[in-house]
Amino acid sequence: MFPYEGHLRLLRGKHAYSPSEVTEILRLARLSELEVVPLVQTFGHMEFVLKHAAFAHLREVALFPNTLNPHEAESLALVQAMIDQILELHRDVRWLHIGCDEVYYLGEGETSKQWLQQEQNSHAKLCLSHIQAVASHVLTQHPGVRPLVWDDMLRDIPQELLKASGVPQLVEPVLWDYGADLDVHRKIFLIGKYQECGFQRLWAASAFKGATGASQALPPVEHHIRNHELWLQVAGSAPTDSLQGIILTGWQRYDHFSVLCELLPVGIPSLAACLQSLVHGGFAEDVRLSVERFLGVSSLEITDAVSEGPGSFPGSDIHALVTQISLHLRSSVDTLLERNRYVTGWFSPYHRRRKLVHPVMIQHIQPEALSVLSRWNNLVQQLEAALQPVFYPDTIEEWLEENVLPSMQRLQDLLQDLGEAAAQQPPPTSPGWDTGQNP
To answer: What is the pLDDT of residues 373-393, one digit of tens each?
Structure first.
C-alpha cells in the first residue's frame, strides 16, 4: 500500500495510497491522538519484493521469495532505499519497525553455505550482521528514529554472541506471542536475558485477530483475551519498567501469498475486549459490561466464535453478516446435502451422476434447496453492499470466493442436477394407455 517511487515503483500494490493520502492518514492519526509506527520488512517476509523478476536474484534460496540474501550488497541497498522512501513520508515518527521475523531458509543459499563453512561463522552471526547493518542505516541516516525488531530470531542466540554483536545498542526487540497458552515464566526469563545482553528497551506483542488460523473468518475472543491476561502476568512479574508497551497486532494475512483471515470490522469486538482487559488488568464482569456499552451490543459471547446480533460500532453490519454466514452457511448446506433423507436416499451422488430421480422426490427436494439458496443470496447481497464502502473490489471478491462461493456452488450444482434429471423423465402417460401395471 506504500507509494514506492523510482526503481521500487513495481512494489506498489494495485490500490497503493498516493503520497497525499499517506500525509492525510498521518494528519488524521495525530488528530485522534494516535502515533504511527511504520513497519517495513527487511529480511524475512520479503515476498512482496522478491516475487518480482527484477529482484528475484536477491533471494536467499532461488526457489523461495520469502528471505533476502544478506551477502549481496544490492540486498542492503534495496532495504535502505525502501526505508528512506518510507521515512521521507513519515517525517516525525519516533520508531520504525524493520521486521526481521521468520527469516526462513536463512543459511540455505549457496553463498551462505560457503560462508558458514568458515570457522567462527554461524547462522546467528549471519542474522545479527544483517540486523546490525539495517539498524545502523536507520540510526545514521534518520537520527531520532529507533528501529524495532521482532524477537523470534534472537531468542535462541547465545547471550555472549548477542552482547558482542552490538545489536542490543541499535534496536528495541518486540517479544511476540499470540497464544492462549503463553509460557509466562519463559517470557520473564527471556526479558532478563535480553536485559543482560544490553537491550535497554523491550516491547511485547499480542494479537486480537489474525493469529489462530490462516483462513480464520471469526476471531475466537476468549483465546485473545486469555493471551492478553497472560501478557499482563508477564508485565506484572518482569523487572519494573522493563516493558515499554504492548503492540496489539491484528494480522490480515499470514504472509503475502496466503488467504485473507478475519476482516478488521469483524475483529473490532475482540480488539475492544482485549484493550479493556489491558486497561483494567483483566476481563471481569464490569469490564465486559463496559465493552458491551462501547460496542452497542446486548451481549458479548466470548466463548462462542463471536457474539451474534447487531451492534452500533463502525463496521457492525459487516460483523453481523459475516458472523451469520460463517456460522451457518456451510452447515445449512451440509444439512441439506448430507442429512436430508430425500437427498441422501433418492438423489445421492450415484443418482446425480446418472441423472436418475423419482419424480415425487423433485417436489420434496427442489423447494427446500431453492429456499436455502434464496435466503443466502439475500444475505450475501447485503454483505456485498456493506463491504463496498470499506474494501476494494478485489478484496470483496476474494473473501466471497473463499468463504461463500464453495457452499453456494454446491447448492446450485444440486439444483442443476435436479433440473437435468427432471428433464430426462418420460412424459406423463395419457389416460387409457396400458401402463403395464397390474390392476
So the answer is: 999 999 999 999 999 999 999
Q: Single out the residue of 15, 17, 111, 28 nearest to residue 67, CA to CA.
A: 111
For the chain, what percent of residues have pLDDT higher than 70?
Answer: 96
Pick the catalytic residue: 102, 222, 301, 368? 102
Domain limits, the chain: 6-283, 317-423
- Evaluate whether the domain defined by 6-283 bears CATH number 3.20.20.80: yes
Dist CA 155 CA 128 (whole Å): 12
How many other C-beta atoms lie within 10 A of the C-beta of residue 292? 18
Would you call 398 a catalytic residue per the annotation?
A: no
In 3D space, the residue among 39, 30, 32, 34 whose CA is nearest the CA of residue 87 turns out to be 39
More confident residue, 132 or 430: 132
Across 218-238, average pLDDT: 97
pTM check: above 0.70:
yes
Residue 258 identity (one-letter amino acid)? S
Task: Pick the closest to residue 29 from 82, 90, 98 (CA basis).
Answer: 90
As a whole number of angstroms, the distance between CA 63 and CA 109 comes to: 10
**Residue pointed to by grid coordinates 454466514:** 325
Q: What is the mean pLDDT of residues 233-243?
A: 93
Alpha helices in 248-340 (DSSP H): 264-280, 285-295, 316-334
Q: Can you read off the three cell numbers belonging to residue 305?
A: 466464535
Cα separation, 270 vs 261, in Å, equals: 14
- C-beta separation of 25 from 10 below 8 A: no
CB 79 within 8 A of CB 134: yes
Contacts with 66 (C-beta within 8 Å, 6 or more apart), sequence order: 44, 45, 46, 47, 50, 102, 104, 105, 255
Report the distance separating Cα 397 and Cα 259, nearest Å.
Answer: 12
Residue 90, classed as helix, strand or coil, is coil
Query: pLDDT, tens digit, for every residue of 81-140?
Result: 999 999 999 999 999 999 999 999 999 999 999 999 999 999 999 999 999 999 999 999
How confident is the model at residue 304, as a pLDDT? 58
